[in-house]
Amino acid sequence: SPAVLSLFDHHTNVPVRQNGNHHEDPCRSIDTHTQILLAMLDQVYHSPSVLASGFDSTYALAELYDSHGLVPHVPGTSWQTQFGHLFGYGATYYSYLFDRAIASRVWRKHFSQDPLNRE
């Protein structure tokens, strides 16, 4: 909000941009879609299907991205092995999206009209 951004504007000769870029971000929907895919992948990786002897995490990733992704899986890659959140969150990666929705609602309902009001 402009009121909050103005708090950071007084120590420099360069004014802080007065509108947030989240409304103008053309990739916000793509980011949300990616978070949904990661949440779905997390559910697969923490489901009973991983107990099957032939379970292949890269195949599961490829199947998910090829069926629901905006961009298909690139054969020969296995980036999921480097993404620690899929292990550490234990089937709760979706909480990123859930928390974003809660924070957005709290902001709209309690702070958007007067973000500096401490009451």
From TrEMBL:
Binds 1 zinc ion. It comes from the Eukaryota. It holds the Pfam family Peptidase_M3. GO terms for cellular component: mitochondrion. Its EC number is 3.4.24.59. The keyword Hydrolase applies. GO terms for biological process: peptide metabolic process; protein processing involved in protein targeting to mitochondrion. Gene3D superfamilies: Neurolysin, domain 3 (1.10.1370.10). Residues 23-118 form the Peptidase M3A/M3B catalytic domain. Its cofactor is Zn(2+). One of its GO terms (molecular function) is metal ion binding. Keywords: Hydrolase, Metal-binding, Metalloprotease, Protease, Zinc. SUPFAM superfamilies: Metalloproteases ('zincins'), catalytic domain. It is an enzyme of class 3 (hydrolase). InterPro entries: Neurolysin/TOP_dom2, Pept_M3A_M3B, Pept_M3A_M3B_dom. PANTHER family: MITOCHONDRIAL INTERMEDIATE PEPTIDASE, PROTEASE M3 THIMET OLIGOPEPTIDASE-RELATED. Belongs to the peptidase M3 family. Cleaves proteins, imported into the mitochondrion, to their mature size. While most mitochondrial precursor proteins are processed to the mature form in one step by mitochondrial processing peptidase (MPP), the sequential cleavage by MIP of an octapeptide after initial processing by MPP is a required step for a subgroup of nuclear-encoded precursor proteins destined for the matrix or the inner membrane. This is Mitochondrial intermediate peptidase. The lineage of its organism: Eukaryota, Fungi, Dikarya, Basidiomycota, Agaricomycotina.
